[in-house]
Amino acid sequence: MNRRHFFFGSILAGTVPVGGFGSTASLRALGYKSPNEKLNIAAVGAGGRGASDIGGCSTENIVALADPDQKRAAQTFEKYPNATRYPDFRKMLDKEANRIDAVIVATPDHMHATAALAAMQLGKHVYCEKPLTRTVWEARLLAQAAAKYGVATQMGNQGYSNEGARIAAEIIWSGEIGAVREVHAWTNRPVWPQGVAQLPKEEPVPSTLDWDAWLGPQAMRPYSSAYLPFNWRGWYDFGAGAPGDMACHILGAPNMALRLTAPTSVEVIKRDGKNPYTFPTQSVTRFDFPARGASLPALTLYWYDGMQKEAWRPESLAAGEQYVGGPDGLGAPPPNPNTPPRGRSNDGRGGTVSSAANGAAFVGEKGIITTDTYAANVRLLPESRMKEYKLPAQYLTRSPGHYRDWIRACKGGERSCSDFRIAGPLTEWIVLGSIALHAEGKLEWDAARMRITNNSDANKLVKPKFRKGWELKL
């Protein structure tokens, strides 16, 4: 056995199934569905991102749609005229349960766990947008629920399905850049209002909106257009900020390649615009991970948001040398119509940002690897290393496409690559970073007890408060 195979074996022994990311046995035991037979899919959330997710699964039968915002969902309602419509997803599940096979959840973050758990408890397969949940407790609950109810699941982080994430993992596991003890990852988000230091004024509830259903488990409050249709991401009670929006994409490749477990601590080391209601305008967060076996040493990961360009660049890299992204990177970009074009993209405020404003850098003892927003365009640095580089032997199975991955799993095929057994733990540590944005100082994390051990106020945010009648339990 050569060194490359030895490195693979020492990292992955017992951690990756022989068949790749999934085995069909457990799903087939539930009742195999022919790949040629179409699923009956319902969606919770039909406007915005939900419209894109529904379109990605439109090879199947779209039979029911639930959205409390009729205006936001209008185009999707028109596109699928045969699908029954509901303002409250609970009524949809009650009335349509017997003819639904699977459910897409594409609501604001605060509703993810509520809708996904309800669907799984009915034995329905679930695709849930990222972040899987808004809080740590909910993420762990959904992972447990997926195991208990034996359904096929997938989180909407396309980077995990992309070939680039697998290429990066295989290069790192081959030992090409040596041990990785540091990762830097960054995003141009937020592109919505944050740093807002006061609650908005009350406005009349639009006639096209069921405000009570939109709030779901959150406490009743006055309606304001400051929350809808998209700016909810920046509010603590509804979203998970920039980490919730983009970290599940950008940090997917590091999570896969470095076999990340729970961090031991998380600390915000820079923050602009701290306030009681919304996430800050810009921040830098440090995560410390323990060693994972003998081959993967302790690791420090830095997350930067609010960036207009790359947040970190190695001093040794020549000025003007390609760094993140680019047409000569390894790994195909995702087949996602919402992916920004190469070069410069809209920043959500009428301006543009460089495509390098979203990416990650793996800093190894013998070199550096970078990936872009969705883990595509893997690059070895310095650039001269890419010219004659030969990829290691393929070790990981490739995804047939992000939505197809989940649909295949629903029909009894391999597990999807970002099912809740993977997405749950990934979301846990990402939204732990969202908690740190509320707090001051380093938070010490005990994953086994699901507890922040040195800050009782921050620990209260691990599990959300639920409005009466919306409580969750397995």
Features:
474 residues; nine-stranded mixed beta sheet; 2 domains
Question: What is the oligomeric state here?
Answer: single chain
Work out the helicity level.
25-40%
Portion in beta strands: 15-25%
Backbone structural class: alpha/beta
What is the count of helical runs? 15
Radius of gyration based on Cα positions: 22 Å
- How far apart, in Å, are the first and last alpha carbons? 47 Å
Total E-strand runs: 17
Task: Tell the overall outline.
Answer: globular
Q: What's the rounded overall pLDDT mean?
A: 89
Could you characterize what this model shows?
This protein is α/β, with parallel strands linked by helices. The protein folds into 2 domains: 297 residues, no CATH class; 156 residues, Rossmann fold (3-Layer(aba) Sandwich). A 9-stranded mixed beta sheet has the order 15-14-13-7-10-9-8-16-17. A 6-stranded parallel beta sheet has the order 3-2-1-4-5-6, sandwiched between helices. It has a two-stranded antiparallel sheet with strand order 11-12. β1, α3 and β2 form a beta-alpha-beta unit. It is globular and about 60 Å long.
